[in-house]
Queue: 2 jobs
Job 1
Amino acid sequence: MHLRKTILATALLATPLFANAKLSQSDIKQFAAQADLKFGVVDNFHDNDGGYIGKIQLKNTSKVALPKGESNWQLYFHSIRKVKTPKVKGIAIEHVNGDLHRLVPTKSFAGLAVGETLALEYEAAAYIVSYSDVMPRAFISLDNKDAEVFASTDTEDLKQFVLPIVEERQLKKFNTPKDLSVIADAQNRHALNIKNEKYTPSQEDALKRIIPKPLDVDFSRGEVTLSSDWVVSYQGSLKQEVNVLLDDLSKLYGLKLEANADHISVGKKPHLSLKVDNSIQSGDAESYYLEIDKNKITVVGSDNAGVFYGLQSLLALFPADANGSVELPRVEIKDSPRFSYRGMHYDNARNFHGKDAMFKLVEQMAKYKLNTLHWHFSDDEGWRLEIPSLPELAEIGGVRCFDLSEDSCLLTQLGTGPHKDGSGNGYLTKDDFVELLKFAAARHIKIIPEVESPGHARASIKAMEARYRKLMKAGDEVGAKAYLLSDPEDKSKYITVQNYTDNSINACMDSSYNFMEKVTYELQQMYREAGVRLENLHFGGDEVGAGSWTNSPACQKMFEEAGNGVAGPADLKPYFTQRVAKMLAKRGIAPGAWEDGLMYDRVNTFNREEFPNPVFTANAWDNIWEWGVADRAYRLANNDYQVVLSHGTHLYFDHPYEAHPEERGYYWATRFISNEKAFGYMPDNVYANADFTRTGEVIKNLEDLVGRPLPQLEKPENILGMQGQVWSETIRTEDQVLAMLFPRVLAVAERAWYKAPWEGEKPDAQKRAKDWMTFSAALGTKELAKLAKSGVKANLDVPGGEVNKGTLTTSVATAYLDVEYSVDQGKSWQTYQQPVNVGDTQVWLRSSLNDQVKSRITTIN
């Protein structure tokens, strides 16, 4: 009997006790550190294109058991697709808000003993085909308070916690309709690459290729050696441009030139002459003339910007490795831009990537003659600029953490995790922004700030609610309500595309407009401090949740008042737009909005006459051809809005470079946007860009696909230009965002500056291929290396290749980029020079720029 008791006691000590047990903080800390948590997609073909089966796999490799039944723990995870399954295996799956979900044990939960694995399959909306759809930093909490991150998910190596995506039902979005996407592999990449190889120019010609391509280039015989013996002679008004030039020459090429205003004679010294002459290129703004001759380089601009761009073309002829002196071809260039608006949109509201990322982006935009940065600094997930009079915007709206009250931070989203030092947190201080404005202005870049409203505004709403609670507690009711953006009595029910239920600014409260004016005032003061003018303020306007304001007492009161132009919820978005536009007009600022923020419905624009603004810009983005709204760019332009082409199918650089699960990015507009696809965008004919549907089907008749006549462009003067976009839901670090931007930014610069002869309703495929290969060769020969020299690790194309009878041949889309191969699973790498015998061993391939910049690895079995 005594022996039996001893055995029983020993067994009890060895077996976790489940019943009615609660976990301690030390328990969940150990559990999170040691347990293995993984996520996966099981079946995208589950419900046509309406849902998929996902999987959560929790292997208890810790020494802590999860007790059976109800308990005090909750497991939080990020899912960009809203989970439909309410309960599985005794675990309730709850949607918190946005992408945040949690697992909560119920009475029927069987517990999770040490060594056991819990596998939960659930149904969620849409589909997942990419590792980057799954967010890192899941965490476990006690009583919804203290939280610990699962170490297995605390990484940017997504394959560490995402189950393999290899089967067709994982790689494809749906099976009904058929997803025709071709998943990239070494063999099909190789087949595509070799089609264009015959058009590859010599490296000598590639070095002469300026990006963006000038209008008129005439190379002469011979070269000129530019060294520190040269001097710069400049018209006095060009001092700012000269300072940027001298800094670039010194920092990047080791060239230190003396510079003097042109009233000082240069004597017989070889020199660089800079001046403004507004008769150049018929006086067109931003035009220039560049001549490189034996002992003189001349840059004449129609204005200061033209001189600056002439200097960028001069620098574009430098080899990347130039140091101390440089051999330049003798050349004469006459050049003018295609569009006055040449831009990049940058979202760091979703995830903040640091101050340096913004400066690097602006610096490179200038080198490629882009002149507008559309800065999306506010959204649901973050507010990224200090507003001194409303400190809560940055202090709370700029930080995500695990605080369900949202008094100290926003609700965690997008893989930030529970702690304030998690990824994606941060903001620019006022001084940072003033510094950025000065830096951009010196490089002829205008910054357009975007204050997202009335939708996509959760960060500002929650920050102002926290301010309200703080001031009410202090007894300051007037101050508390001054900038409140939400009606406490609002019972409206809605859910947005990003699964938020509370992100619409209340359009019926005067405090909402007080807020917009206060932020505008603060922005104007920053611009003035920087010595520039706030010319355009973008207020977003897009994707307002259907159902917003329908049960708001403040709005109901407005509906009942006669003569205010608001009879019901459908009138509120144009009403909001009118009030903001009139406020901006009084301040001399042009408003801007996304296209759907200016539409009553799918085809009818807001009445332009209701807005007093001479300029009202509209970003046309939604050109998903089969959705039937790709004609909005022309509808808006014809109705006197000034349109910036921003189309998702070619210009959204948060999309993958190729169709492959290891590529980062969303893919709602198209499965991929390669460098070549972005390069091939034709802004003069929106409809000519209709190539494939979202299923991958070739579009043969666009009007038949849409099912109605497509309006033609009647007022081309209202197309201001074009811009690329990057949205940052899946992009958490500086290196990640710069790789998503570059080198695709260069393709935007090319098309915004230069109209190619191959463009047209039916583009000349052969001429386009030749032009692309010259552009590609310039990337591989010098531009990628120049980017790296400036601290930008651009994305490198993954190589293609095949093994035929034991012989390896490889290729890469970017001409002259090195390819490396390994036959020992990456232990050692060799540079591919020519076909080589590798036998029947598995081969690994990657492209390589230098020791630090490599492509993703692909394999050939």
Job 2
Amino acid sequence: MLIRWANLIVGGFHLVTVLFAILLPFVCAALIPLLYRRLRRMAHLGWFVLSVPIILFILLARYIPQIAEGKTFIDTYEWIPSFNINFTTYLDGLSIIFGLLITGVGSLVILYSIFYLSTKESLHHFYCYLLLFMGAMLGVVFSDNLMVLYTFWELTSVSSFLLIAFWHHRKASRAGARKAMTITVFGGLSMLAGFLMLYVASGTFSIRDIVSNVEMIREHTLFVPALLLILVGAFTKSAQFPFHIWLPDAMEAPTPVSAYLHSATMVKAGIYIVARFSPVFGGEPVWFWLVSGIGLVTLFWGSFNAVRQTDLKALLAFSTVSQLGLIMSLFGLGSVGHYFGYAESSIIYTQASFAALFHLINHSTFKGALFMMVGIVDHEVGTRDIRRLGGLMALMPVTFTIAVIGGFSMAGLPPFNGFLSKEMFFAAVLAIREVEVFSIDTWGILFPVVAWVASIFTFVYSMILIGHTFFGKLQPYKLDKKPHEAPIGMLISPIVLCLLVVTIFFFPNVLGHYILQPAMASIYPTFPTVSELTPHISAWHGVNTELLMTLGVIIIGFVLFKTLKSWKPLYRVFSQNFTFNSYYNHLINFSEKGSMKLTNRYMSGNLTHYFVYIYVFFVALIAGYFIWSDAMVFEFAKDSPVESYELVLVFVMMFAAIWMVFAKGRITAMLLNGVLGYSIAFFFVIFRAPDLALTQLVVESVTTALFLLCFKYLPDLLPENSRMRVKWANAIIAIFAGATVTLVGLAVVHYDRFETVALYFNDAYDLAGGSNIVNTILGDFRAFDTMLEVVVLLIAGLGVYTLTKLKPRKEEADHEN
């Protein structure tokens, strides 16, 4: 039935499938708060949510044969065409890999969560956040417009914040969510600046158009700054050194969140950006050294720190950091192929990108299975502390099998898919030594050395994960629960992932032809023959250097694992006071204390002080700019003559304003304020703006009557006892503020440094359908402002409705508690 439903949808929405894939999770997320009470009475809410990623996975899978033939699918929907911002979806070989991972792993994660999360949890919140994140990730990988991509990019940060902080009653969960959002949003803003620079350099927001005009863009002065800023965004999202510190703290999220966000989706968003922009920045020395260098440092630092962890999820967190660094470094090495262009001799360098794509998929399979395995151990045993675990192999044989398959694949051992991509990784770092550009001949030897040392630590922490959890002596007195095998429902998802781990090892070229080859065409769009970029994947290449490196990893890694107790105390040499985490915490504490001190200095509770701050800043900024730019130019000869009745009105307004300051009663002050308002209305009449005059008269009459009615019941004004120095200071500030407004108003008439805005409204009838420019401005801009105000009120109203109408009923609250 599910497949028939998917086929029906594809048949009816063939042209909008990608848009449908992006919007469906958002629509379902919006419906969950409204329907969850009815759905929960019928079955677990997760069963209904599960249908969303399954349908989307089937929809995308139908495109695999066509994508493998080299086809791409592009659809554009107008959004803000006046600013060249349109909702353009782009489905090609690269985006479909990520789309299949997002929906495929998402399906398994939701199935796993059905059995992992208790019905006492706030499931409607969890699945709503999860669908929001799924839709945002699909929007990132399918968007061709930079601004649309950035919008979804930041939405992934917001939704991941909600997922990490799902158990918001825990302080660690809230802290981890804040750290993740702070770092990734900072990177997102940096990436936005890079996108805007690319727009200035290329004149378009379309990634496809930027790639097609890359030769022109490379000559622009903003090319390298854009490169650096975009990389900051990619590095923060993909937890690259030194921005990796948010990922271990994010492990406070429920295990399904970790399995989804931190192995297959969110952390891969930065990888996607690097792969997507490789045709633009690839071949640049800065891009090569940053992507490959930071990737290798991240690979080593993550694997080195994973060994010291005592919590299973923390170990997997640092292993994820390490594996992300491996993938990132491979894309950096593969960027050399863009420097040489298409040539038979450069194919060896492009295979690094192929290995990156291959390991991207492999990592999602074995790391997703390992996260679910750790969740099972925690769920059934009650702890993730390695020091309390051991001897679980006989009691949890299926979970042990999952750990062995996932762990050995992560360590790069056969017959698992991680072995194939790890061998290709070794081949890439060995081949890069032969490149005679970018000064690689001096530093190139470090690539295979760092890769090999990091792989040894990878082997060690993989053995720790398996050996310290399932081998050794059982310690039941240290466990919170009596250990037993998980229910079959919780085992299905990791078993499926383990089957993929083994299947890919034996049939890797099916994946290479239908999935990886089209993605290579996206990364190297100028290469005419894509088939040559896709090597034949084989587990055996004879006795070569890569195989010897693998044997060295196994032998040395096994020795280090067996002697772990003797050398692990060396980690104590690295003080916790000099870590990036401590620096981050010191920075946050310093910022909070500094902002508190600054706020306490100016938030005195005195309204007069606040006006002083506002007016001083206003005078300094506005008057300072006009004086600095020599804009204070006055040519009164060109002005219209001032009539005597206009002078009378001016003096009346001045008299009323000055008298109002010295008025001793509220009613007197209010009447004088009314004189000011009515005088302005007379000016509108004089300047032939009857509609404005009528509006001013009505508003002034109503407000004067209301104020008089209210002030009748208030006590008289008390005289101010301010010191004379304060009064003089306030008077000087008031005079300067008034003089600034007056002088700026006079100077603007003769300001010619910019084109007058009046030219924009010369064609008011065609632009807005109004022949009166004043009415057009009011109708367009004031109406737009009112619309935004209504939207704000609508959002506030929805919030109030949610808090009141959707709160749990008494019996439901008792059930959840």
